[in-house]
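FIELD: query
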Amino acid sequence: TRTGRRRRRRYTFIHQESYVTAAGAESLFSLSWWPFSYEMATKSSTIHNEQYLNSLDLPSIDCSWACVSNTEQIQLQQMKLLLRSELKMITDVNLHEKHPDVYSDLRLLRFLRKSKDRDVTSAAERYRSFLQWREQNEVDSIRDMVEDCNGSFTPTAVRLQTVASHFPMNFDYLVQETDELNEGDKSLVKPAILNVGEFDTRGITEKILASNSDDVELEDFLNYWIFLYESIHLRLYQQSLQFGQMTFLDEVCDLSGLSLQQFSPSFGTKVMSPWLKMTQAYYPETTRRIYILHP
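FIELD: result
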């Protein structure tokens, strides 16, 4: 009864990896667990779990210079611990050496930073989905195409060139912006010019939805943006190593000539929706700020 003695809550932790559920893993590896556990668990249970966490052999990371704090560094190590099976498969086939911009700890850090609370378990799950998506869609072959283009932002595949012709952009200004940095901000930002007012969304939508289209399909459209983001992240990775800080992209969107006809229901549901879903899920922490010109 409510008037009776309050039952003390007890917690049981199973150390075997195969028995740790998502919630259990979050309890073990998320720093946000500690205030709750201190209030609800007995003193002996808290001591036991502190000893368990302290006994974990956390893997090393190769981008401690990019972490903003020791806490973030530990969270990244914990994330690697949760992903050790997936990371082992990557190292077994040397993908981390072939494409370090994709499979390095720096990319893991971008996934960790996607959530403001730095939830380690959610970040690890997002990265798992990222790996599955790359395998299912053969994204590494598109990454190889970037290499063949010498890191440029212009694809050689004809269908991807057709998509690119509908979306004029300029990446020639990927230069250091030291004046834009906030005091103490360990990041560099690189600008790209997007001529949004000239985006031919109507034309690309008509091509994609055409029943007998020999030009492009939705897959070609998405592959172009994969190519673009793979190119961007290769450049950001190289510049991050060069400057010793994580770099990001600024988007300068020129709206000159923008029309409501560019945002038809067909474009929104059939083209833009899967495009945004893909880029937001699999390329986190790419853009730092968006500037609008001629609104």
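FIELD: remark
The chain has a mean pLDDT of 79.
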